[in-house]
Every structure is written in structure tokens, then in C-alpha cells.
Design goal:
The protein is mainly β and about 300 residues long. The protein has two domains: about 15-120, Macroglobulin (MG2) domain (Immunoglobulin-like); about 130-300, Glucose Permease (Domain IIA) (Distorted Sandwich). The chain has two helices and 23 strands.
Amino acid sequence: MFFSPSRIVVGAVLLAAVEARSSEETTVVSVRCGETVLLRVSEPAPKQGSLGIVEVRSEAPLASVEGLFAGEELLFWHDAEARVFQAFLGVDLYESPGAASLRARAVPETGPAVDCLLELRITDGAFPVQRLDVAPGYVELSRQDRARSQREQAELDRLFSSATSERLWQEGFNAPVKGYEASGSFGKRRVFNGQARSPHSGEDFSAPAGTAVLAPSRGRVVLAKDLFFLGSTVMLDHGFGLYSFYGHLSSIGVEVGTLVERGAVLGKVGATGRVTGAHLHWGVRLGEARVNPLDLLTLTR
């Protein structure tokens, strides 16, 4: 099922006949590749930190589909008849604005392969800057703390670099806490005591300590431990390179290796790690790309 997000900026240069469909809320841009294959993209002008969908639709069953976006491999899953293949398209928070090529090759069960090309344009995320005055210990790390954080980051990078070739999520994604709105903090450029720090790569929910944190969709627990920055953290692998994680928990309620269903309790909101108060940090990664978790709430179903 192809989802058309609510905001589309049409700015793609298509190397074949372009078909655009509009409704009151959406515009879908597609390009026909040969006579029987159609390539569609949910976001022809994706913003920094955005998560989109690429779809390859064929009149006849396909043996496989491969693709690249901005030089990074796209991982496709397909429907039961192998006529519709989809892949997530993630733009990292720090990706430079400008032109980016989307390439796909569809290999039918019979007949020659078909190539598609779309020239997309990555746009500036226009993220706000947050300036905070905090205790010096939150800015300057000791040698021991720095070494620990580097070891943990290497562990996280190893997880993000792998991809399960199985679609574990089912239906869509829900917010991980009920009754609390997201703060809109994703992408904020943070300046602590006048020193620039990494942008905020997740979304925060200002829920009180003890609030249940729920799995937004089906996934396998690949990490459940205390981390220096994120405190008590749970990470889920949803398949095809999509990971979600939940930080600053007061307690963890799942074990590594467990396959959890949507709505399962992962833990409780807390104030562990490098924080000044209780809240949930919800992060999503598509491989190496840090993307906005809120995109998942409308992108999949």
C-alpha cells in the first residue's frame, strides 16, 4: 500500500513521462519505466531528517527490485503477488541540501530488467536553535565518561549498520506514550553554555515518570541496557534497516531477543542518563539516517 503524505513540494526532474495525481491534501509524483513498471515517490523534495516511501509497481510479477538514493542502498519488500515493491527513503538530519538521484532497477520474472531514474532535491529542514545554560558537567565530559560514550556509540553504530531482511512491523505505528503530545524537538540545533552541540536526533514526550512506554509497532528487542547519554534504553528492530529506540526510562520491561507486538510495554518514563527532568526520548534510524519519528505515524498503515 502506497501512502501519500500531506505535504508534497513538486520539484523533481523526471527522465520519462511524469504522472501527477492530486487530491485535496496530497500530490503523488510518478514516472513510468518502460510499458509495465511505474515508480512513485512519496516525497520528491524531502527535507533533512525526513522519512518517505518509494514504490515500484508492475503489471506483471517481479523477481526483484534494487535501488539507490543518494548513493545509499534501498531495501525493498513486496506484496504477496510481487507486483508492488516498497522501500523506506530516509534523509539524514545532516544531509546537505541539493540534488539527489533516486535509481531503481526492476527485474521481472520473465523479460529484461527495467531501469528508472528520478532526480530529487533535498531541502533544508529549517530547524530551530535552542540555547541552554546548564551545569558544566553536562557540557564537559571526563575522560572516563567520554571513553564510555564512545564505546556505546560504536555498539549502536554496529546495530544500525545491519538490516533484517524481514518485515517485522505490522499495520502502522502508534505514538509510544498515550495522552501526551510530542514536543517538536526533532532537529533542534542545541547550544549549551555557548558551545554548539549535535542536533536533537529524536522526539521528546513530556510524560511524567512512571508513564508506560509502548511499542509503536511489532519489532524485536536488540538492546535493553543503561547508556551514558540515553540512560536506560530499549531498541527495537522493525526490519529492513528500520530501528526505533526509547531513552531515559526509569525501568526496562523487556529482554533482548524478544519479539514484541504493538502496544507491548517496553518500560516506564524516567529521568535516567543525561537529562534534567523526566521525559521520553523517542528516536528512529533508517540505517545511518537519523529521521523524524513522527513521520512513521502517518507514513505507514
